[in-house]
Design a protein that fits this description.
256 residues; mainly beta; globular; single chain; 16-stranded antiparallel β-barrel
Length: 256
């Protein structure tokens, strides 16, 4: 896995990230069942900066596939208005410059009394999306409801997340509703279970693409690193060949 990482990317990483005191990186493979080779290299760095009474988080990201010769993006985020209590209004911001597509994105978030209202804007698409999130109680369960209006697509995206089994399990559902076509699309169902401390099993299913993804994340296998094994299975393929057709990938992430 590491021998196949391009040396030029490692050199770029050392110049761009080690100089900035990088603190997280990950290397991923292609399909181990035939493509056993390097797929991507990512790294992130972040640092809190105080300017007067304002605290800003500066974050830089590197992505070999997106922009191998330089950083992929740099962002700054923080609070414009800090809420003194749950009834006050707090306003946060995030400004992101993507060097791979030369686009700048601005996200503003206002929170008060358990509600969170957000809006995203960029110079190309203008107002991209507006969303709200709120935790509601449904019987004995708490559900995080996140509806979002996608302006250009004229679609409503709804995401629901709930914890079960005293937080050991988590289920989620997401879909886009096309207003013009009056139909739901891009449906995705998810499930996550903490097997034990440091080991998490997750699965997601997209019915429209008949794609099932199962991942096992393990932070106990190697000290200081997290390994993730992922299998993607196309359920619409020949039933007798499901396992042989599965795409299996491996990822190692670590901090320093």
């Amino acid at each position: 896995l590491y021998q196949s990482v391009p040396s030029r990317s490692l050199a770029m990483l050392s110049v761009s990230f080690f100089a900035l005191a990088a603190n997280r990186a990950e290397v991923s493979t292609g399909n181990l069942r035939g493509e056993n080779k390097f797929d991507n290299l990512k790294a992130t760095w972040d640092k809190s900066v105080s300017i007067g009474d304002f605290k800003t988080l500066v974050k830089a990201k590197y992505d070999y596939n997106a922009n191998r010769d330089f950083l992929k993006e740099v962002s700054i985020s923080g609070d414009l208005i800090e809420a003194g209590n749950a009834d006050d209004v707090g306003v946060g911001y995030e400004l992101t410059r993507d060097f791979s597509n030369r686009n700048t994105n601005v996200r503003l978030t206002a929170t008060s009394r358990g509600y969170s209202l957000s809006a995203e804007y960029d110079p190309n698409e203008q107002l991209r999306e507006v969303g709200v999130s709120r935790e509601v109680e449904v019987g004995d369960y708490k559900v995080d409801v996140q509806p979002t209006w996608l302006v250009k697509a004229k679609a409503a995206r709804v995401k629901l997340i709930s914890a079960l089994n005293n937080g050991k399990d988590r289920v989620s559902a997401q879909f886009d509703y096309d207003v013009d076509g009056q139909q739901a699309k891009d449906v995705e169902l998810g499930f996550e279970r903490t097997l034990e401390e440091g080991k998490v099993l997750s699965a997601s299913f997209r019915p429209d693409k008949s794609d099932l993804e199962v991942s096992l994340e393990d932070s106990t296998f190697e000290s200081g690193a997290t390994w993730t094994a992922t299998a993607n299975v196309a359920l619409d393929s020949d039933p007798s060949n499901l396992l042989d057709a599965a795409r299996v990938t491996l990822k190692r992430s670590w901090g320093w």
